[in-house]
Design a protein that fits this description.
The protein has 92 residues and is mainly α. It is built from four helices and two strands, in the order ββαααα.
Length: 92
């Protein structure tokens, strides 16, 4: 079975040009969760530290989605391990 793929800006367009290719279903789930992020993720005037925090949060979301899709606990552990670093970048 073929799945349609889409590009996803992991930190939002304003914070990074980094994209990953995701199936449509995963893209929808992650994009919906992005809407729950700190509202600054959708701002054009973020500091480099804040942009970095959103890049890490985007990676975290990918790990969360992989855990959800596969049930592999290590993906959740990787996601959780990023939380303190994301917080540190936000506080800088």
């Amino acid at each position: 079975m073929l799945h349609r793929l889409e590009n996803h800006h992991i930190a939002g367009r304003f914070n990074s040009e980094i994209t990953v290719t995701l199936c449509v279903d995963c893209h929808i789930h992650i994009s919906i969760r992005q809407l729950l992020w700190n509202e600054a993720w959708n701002s054009k005037n973020n500091t480099e530290n804040l942009k970095s925090s959103f890049i890490l949060q985007g990676i975290q979301e990918i790990f969360i989605e992989k855990h959800f899709k596969t049930g592999i606990r290590d993906y959740r552990l990787l996601a959780d391990s990023l939380s303190s670093t994301i917080k540190r970048y936000r506080e800088m």
